[in-house]
Specification:
The protein is an alpha+beta fold. It is about 15% helix and about 20% strand.
């Protein structure tokens, strides 16, 4: 299952002042295996700042902390 090809999607990232936006994403010309996609997600999540903790980002995945990462500074011990 991890070896099967899946399409990647592309879209504009959030601007620093944005806390979220709704959009339709297009299928990118690039594709890869599900394993490659998972590796990219992990690499994206391995960002760290001042306290060597992962950056949490922003978004509506958890309403209680959806603005913690606004301006690219929110850190999280949940992702360690």
């Amino acid at each position: 299952m991890l070896a099967g090809n899946v399409p990647f999607f592309s879209g504009d990232p959030l601007d620093l002042e944005e806390v979220g936006h709704y959009s339709t994403y297009e299928t990118d010309v690039e594709d890869g295996t599900l394993y490659e996609l998972c590796c990219r997600v992990v690499d994206k999540g391995l960002t760290a700042e001042g306290h060597s903790l992962p950056l949490i980002g922003s978004g509506d995945w958890n309403d209680g902390i959806n603005r913690v990462g606004t301006a690219g500074r929110g850190e999280s011990i949940w992702m360690v």
